[in-house]
Amino acid sequence: MVQYSSNKKLPLLNKIPEPLKSLINKIREERYTALYESEADGTASLDNALNDILDVFQTSGKTLCHLRYVWLSLILALVVEPIVESYQAQNNFTKSTLELLERGIYSQIDSDLSSKKLHFDLQQEIDNLEAIFSQPIEPIKNKGIANLQIISESRKVFRNALRVLDREQAKEATLEILKDCLEGYAIFPGSSGRRDLFDWWLLEVVPGSWYLLSPRTLYVGEWVENPEEFQGEGIKKLQEISSQVRSIFTKNSST
Question: Are the C-beta atoms of residues 1 and 193 closer than 8 Å to each other?
Fold first, then answer.
């Protein structure tokens, strides 16, 4: 994993508004017990840090704030997808949820896609996926508690991603995703590497979500069989969605 000792290779971090940059730098200097850091003295709260970041997202209007929550959740869901597939290769919810997040983004900013019928269709698909999530987890070959926690929390990321599409639930659901990814087992088990994962989220995902842009990299865990392919496809997908979002914003501003 990349060690973030310098901001030189993090152009988005250098472009964000000063209040958010100052908050990120403050959070970056803290050490957190929840991340299993030996230097932590218990005075810094990871929950407070996550809340503070998401609160700053709310400074630009309700629609843009919601888009940022959805975008952040989309990035994390992309990272979690391989671990779900490694346990449940035939699952029928990861790709459907990712597609719904993408469509949910477009529906908020494109007047041609914001019809009542579209929202009704989206809600029907969300209800169908909720029914899948409500079913018991299929038996796992390796029945260790750690493995059960991994698949349970990685599935929760996708379930909460659906909740993020509801503006009223978006912040709470995003916080749940962050806890399962940064503190839980949704991305990987154990304590080693927690700070690297957190730094990636703080220094790349947060600025990327602020601008609805792809982070420079995606976090790649040991479960990913083809890391370069995973990186390339994930970044390309985010860039395509981001480009489409900007095209729609441009169209709207010119009409």
Answer: yes
- What pLDDT digit, counting tens, does each position of 99-156 carry? 999 999 998 887 665 555 566 678 888 888 988 888 877 655 555 556 888 889 999 9
C-alpha R_g of the chain: 18
Question: 185-233, pLDDT tens digit by residue?
Answer: 999 888 888 999 999 999 999 999 999 999 999 998 777 889 999 999 9
Closest CA to 142 of 88, 219, 91, 210: 88
* CA–CA gap between residue 75 and residue 218 (Å, rounded): 8
Whole-prediction pTM value? 0.92
How many CA atoms lie less than 13 Å away from 204 in the CB half-sphere?
22
Tokens of 38: 């030996």
Six-digit token string for 99:
């597609």
Spatial separation of the C-alpha atoms in residues 214 and 239, rounded to whole Å = 6
Pull the structure tokens for residue 110. 């494109």
Question: What is the spatial distance between Cα 36 and Cα 46, in angstroms, rounded to a whole number?
Answer: 11
**Per-residue H/E/C for the chain:** CCCCCCCCCCHHHHHCCHHHHHHHHHHHHCCCHHHCCCCCCCCCCHHHHHHHHHHHHHHHCHHHHHHHHHHHHHHHHHHHHHHHHHHCCCCCCHHHHHHHHHHHHHHHHCHHHCCHHHHHHHHHHHHHHHHHHCCCCCCCCCCCHHHHHHHHHHHHHHHHHHHHCCCCCHHHHHHHHHHHHHHCCCCCCCCCCHHHHHHHHHHHHHHHHHHCCCCCCCCCCCCCCCHHHHHHHHHHHHHHHHHHHHHHHHHHHCC
